């Protein structure tokens, strides 16, 4: 009798391995907009409905999750991201770990010097290096990490990790002049605090960057340097470079910055994917790291070294729709002809990316 009864109960091989119940589930179906339960197997939805209508999918090993009235919606789609670049930017949080390794401890909500057991005024410098090291220099912590930026951040009175990260990010790449009234920065703004090291800080839209005077000299950018095709070197009234480089002109500095490693790009993609999931984003359209003046190979390198690697090793966390530089359209056409657009459940080949104008924020658009 027990054997006969067991045969009537589906196993998770054919039924659900998870039933979510007591939720407010938005179905996107106008005829049945909301349900309270859904059955899932291997990460895919088997059925959505009322709890009683899913019992035929419940079997040995089926787990249940009580949402207690929480809302469930389809995953959000972000239609324009630079996923790997975002992950690299977020790596600045490694600064906090670096501070810990340098002898700091986060105790009782305060940042203490573990050797002197007291709060200490700190200045943090960050600049490009391929290795990790820490060194105490005249009341400052010198922390090289994988970033071309070198920024100075006052941490006096700061006792929370998120505040440290926020200040470093604000002082570093991703700046937005609209936040301080619109005035564009100049090299002279940061020369005083970076007299000996090259600095490159990219604007938040990726169409403009600020170099300090050391970086301009290092890259050979002078009042005689001509604007490259598709870019502009901003100048003062007397013709000297201000430090701002727009679009293709950014390559004058970027060409001197070593390419980030494959491992760093892989970690960046996974880091950005995890962050996207915390915001309910399950699919993104990634237009890549290509911009005027940069190599068209960046997008293809990321495709093979990062996305195909993650897909083949089972590490993908969100679905991606990839775009490639328009100059490589024939290569993309060949891949689609051989393999189709949907390479897997995770990777979809979307189309090509071209630049027809600049950016309003970076004052490079024709109609600005």
From TrEMBL:
<feature type="domain" description="Amidohydrolase 3">
    <location>
        <begin position="64"/>
        <end position="99"/>
    </location>
</feature>
<dbReference type="Pfam" id="PF07969">
    <property type="entry name" value="Amidohydro_3"/>
</dbReference>
<dbReference type="GO" id="GO:0016810">
    <property type="term" value="F:hydrolase activity, acting on carbon-nitrogen (but not peptide) bonds"/>
</dbReference>
<feature type="domain" description="Amidohydrolase 3">
    <location>
        <begin position="160"/>
        <end position="368"/>
    </location>
</feature>
<dbReference type="InterPro" id="IPR032466">
    <property type="entry name" value="Metal_Hydrolase"/>
</dbReference>
<dbReference type="InterPro" id="IPR013108">
    <property type="entry name" value="Amidohydro_3"/>
</dbReference>
<protein>
    <recommendedName>
        <fullName>Amidohydrolase 3 domain-containing protein</fullName>
    </recommendedName>
</protein>
<dbReference type="InterPro" id="IPR011059">
    <property type="entry name" value="Metal-dep_hydrolase_composite"/>
</dbReference>
């Amino acid at each position: 009798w027990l054997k006969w009864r067991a045969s009537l109960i589906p196993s998770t091989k054919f039924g659900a391995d998870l039933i979510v119940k007591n939720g407010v589930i938005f179905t996107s179906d106008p005829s049945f907009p909301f349900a309270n339960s859904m059955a899932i197997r291997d990460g895919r939805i088997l059925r959505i409905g009322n709890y009683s209508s899913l019992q035929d999918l419940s079997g040995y090993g089926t787990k249940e999750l009580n949402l207690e009235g929480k809302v469930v919606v389809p995953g959000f789609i972000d239609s324009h991201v630079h996923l790997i670049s975002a992950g690299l930017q977020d790596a600045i949080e490694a600064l906090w770990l670096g501070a810990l390794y340098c002898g700091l401890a986060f105790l009782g909500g305060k940042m203490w010097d573990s050797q002197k057991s007291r709060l200490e005024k700190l200045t943090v410098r960050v600049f490009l290096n391929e290795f990790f090291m820490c060194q105490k220099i005249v009341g400052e912590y010198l922390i090289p990490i994988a970033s071309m930026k070198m920024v100075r951040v006052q941490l006096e009175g700061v006792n929370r990790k998120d505040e440290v990260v926020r200040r470093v990010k604000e002082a570093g790449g991703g700046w937005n002049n609209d936040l301080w009234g619109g005035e564009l920065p100049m090299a002279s703004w940061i020369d005083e605090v970076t007299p000996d090291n090259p600095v490159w800080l990219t604007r938040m839209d990726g169409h403009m960057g600020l170099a300090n005077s050391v970086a301009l000299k290092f890259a050979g950018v002078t009042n005689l340097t001509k604007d490259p095709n598709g870019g502009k070197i901003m100048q003062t009234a007397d013709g000297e470079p201000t430090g701002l480089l727009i679009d293709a002109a950014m390559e004058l500095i970027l060409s001197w910055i070593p390419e980030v490693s494959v491992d760093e790009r892989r970690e960046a993609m996974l880091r950005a994917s995890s962050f996207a999931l915390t915001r309910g984003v399950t699919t993104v359209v990634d237009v890549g790291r290509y911009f005027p003046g940069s190599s068209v190979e960046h997008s293809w390198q990321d495709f093979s070294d990062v996305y195909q690697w993650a897909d083949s090793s089972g590490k993908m966390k969100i679905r991606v729709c990839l775009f490639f530089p328009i100059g490589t359209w024939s290569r993309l056409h060949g891949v689609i002809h051989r393999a189709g657009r949907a390479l897997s459940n995770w990777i979809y080949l979307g189309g090509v990316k071209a630049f027809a104008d600049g950016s309003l924020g970076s004052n490079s658009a024709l109609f600005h």
